[in-house]
Amino acid sequence: MKSDRPKALFEVCGAPMAELVGRAMQGAGADRPVVVIGVCGEEVQGALGEAYDYAWQREQRGTGHAAASASDALKDFDGPVFVAAGDVPLLTPDVFQQLLSRHDEAQAQCTLAVVELDDPTGYGRVIRDDSGRPVRIAEERDASEAERKIREVCVSVYCFDAKTLFRLLPSLSTDNAQGEQYLTDMVEAVAGSGGRVETCFFEEAWLFQGVNDRWQLAQAELALRQRILRRLCEDGVSVVDPATTYVAVDVEVGRDTVLEPMTSIGRGCKIGKNCRIGPSTTIRESTLGDRCVVLMSHLNGAWLENDVRCGPFANLRPGARLHSKSRVGNFVEVKNASLGVAASASHLAYLGDATIGASANIGAGTICCNFDGFQKNRTTIGENAFVGSNTTLIAPVSVGEGAIVAAGSVISHDVPPDSLAIARGQEVIKEQWASKWRRRKEAQSK
To answer: Which residue intervals define the domain Nucleotidyl transferase in the entry (predicted)?
Structure first.
């Protein structure tokens, strides 16, 4: 990956790959997953959080040794246990459900997912005995010429009987090309001890594609994104151009909403019904009600009620709260501020640390001066207030209900309800001054 970052933390559609694997397991009914960590383990723990248990692999001595590192965490567990690598982000709950069903039906101690590949280079080949039973896995580096021609391969996704797994893991040999304990050797260990080994065949080999470089990461992103967008379409969402629409895992979008081209919706977002999002819109960690329109805008940490219109070119930052039928228009920035029902800021404004009442109107060029160099201060604008264009509101300050602030004013004192505030220099008109000035300049230039 050419990175200082642990590979398992690279994100696919907004989620670390290791999390996607764990979610697939849990979707199949697995209990709290155990993540085996080693190099940069603290970083992995910090990213994945408390939803997982962790087991340390202090020395990297192979995949078998990694699995054995989880033995203490699962010492009291008696039942089937899934094992998979943390860099296979396209796995689904259905994969693990099929694997578990096959495992239970056969009463096996080891069941491994297998696929057939036209080019099996790099994969462990499934070796069977004369009766067709799987007896071992031949890794690429250790396989004979004849074994390398086998197209049936192990994709390193397993279901084990927990007691059998942790009983036999310590016996795995390191007598191989890499001098490591291979988890694939568990197949031979289980079969050799009289246990039952089964395979579960999958047609969709792409589900098991691991990520070992940035290009494979991009391909995984594309595949998972298409899966997410297809699910949305099946649920009644219109995606105008899937090739340029990016939706993260966990995003909820209501029926009859339209996602226009160049729309990117990150994790933690919930969008209601009958909305129109985009084109060229980015939404992160935000909630939108029904019938909202967001056009060419950036939303991060915003909350919109029903029937809100936003954009084009609006910037809603964390703490922006827009109530029903409010409007934020072109080149308006809102941060830690709320707009009441039917309030409007249609153009060219900065509304930071402000509370704006219902049906208030904020004119073009209005600025809330909220920072005094030491702390943020709030601006309060009452219901039905009218703030004229090019107004500067020096916080802390309030404009009362129904008050009018004349265009071009600099307001530093509270404005009472239903009052008119004018704070600007008096206009002076000198008739014919301009023509006299031009004549004087022309005379000087001769």
So the answer is: 4-207
